Amino acid sequence: VATVGVLALQGAFSEHIQLLRQAAECLRTQNTHHHHLNWTFIEVKTPAELVTCDALILPGGESTAISLVAERSGMLEPLRNFVKVLRKPTWGTCAGLILLAEAANRTKKGGQDLIGGLDVRVNRNHFGRQTESFQANLPLPFLGDSGVDQPFRCVFIRAPVVEKILPHRTGIQTEEACSNDTIVAPSKTPVDELAKEELNADVEVMAKISTRSPALKDNEEHDHPGKEDIIAVRQGNVFGTSFHPELTEDPRIHVWWLEEVVKAVEKRQQFELADRSK
Length: 278
Ligand code: GLN
Hints:
Helix 1 crosses helix 9. The protein contains 9 helices and 13 strands. A 7-stranded mixed β-sheet has the order 2-1-3-4-13-12-11. The chain is α/β, with parallel strands linked by helices. Glutamine binds next to helix 5.
């Protein structure tokens, strides 16, 4: 049995649970080696619920609100512990991606406390006013052939993009932390060897979109040809997307991610067995 939690403080959490159920059903019918796995999907609001989870999704919504509620309900440190010390599989969509970034820009309204985990800097509300919300059919090669042949309908709502991949943790202290317009997540050190491995993984760019520059005025149509923004990244146990797969009926990314969760859970079981027999 594996338990997957969805942080349910604010935002599109019930949509994620819905799609996770659909994805688990796909895995069951696909007859892969983990079709026997039983999944439990739960809403997570408290530290006690979080400790029962093998993996976690941070939904889209309003990152400032999610972070505030997390702080008030004593969830911020347990979340940092889950992502950065225990290094369990965690996926953030939109606002969730912002919270999982090690650095983010301040907006006019200010900033919020980040959880961190991904060595990237995100730019919030990247697509400006005219394109606040839009959809784009994009190929997602990490989904395999199906991701290339059948583009995924990506829903962007005041979405962030990854504007910079940062050097591992040490680089953030010096460069990003000194600038006034940047919020930086507090650092945490994993304790066991497996978690340290995850920490040392590089940031992989999983998907990009070619976009108009946010610097353009609303009435300017032209984009810089060939300019691309990063909209999905993975680093070890942490995965983030700018868009909202939970607002579609397409479970392919959820299926892919649950398969990643299975691999991580099995790896940890083996690690703990080996550790015990030492
Ligand atoms: N712009 C929002 C934020 O900064 C994210 C929007 C979303 O999750 N759809 O939190």
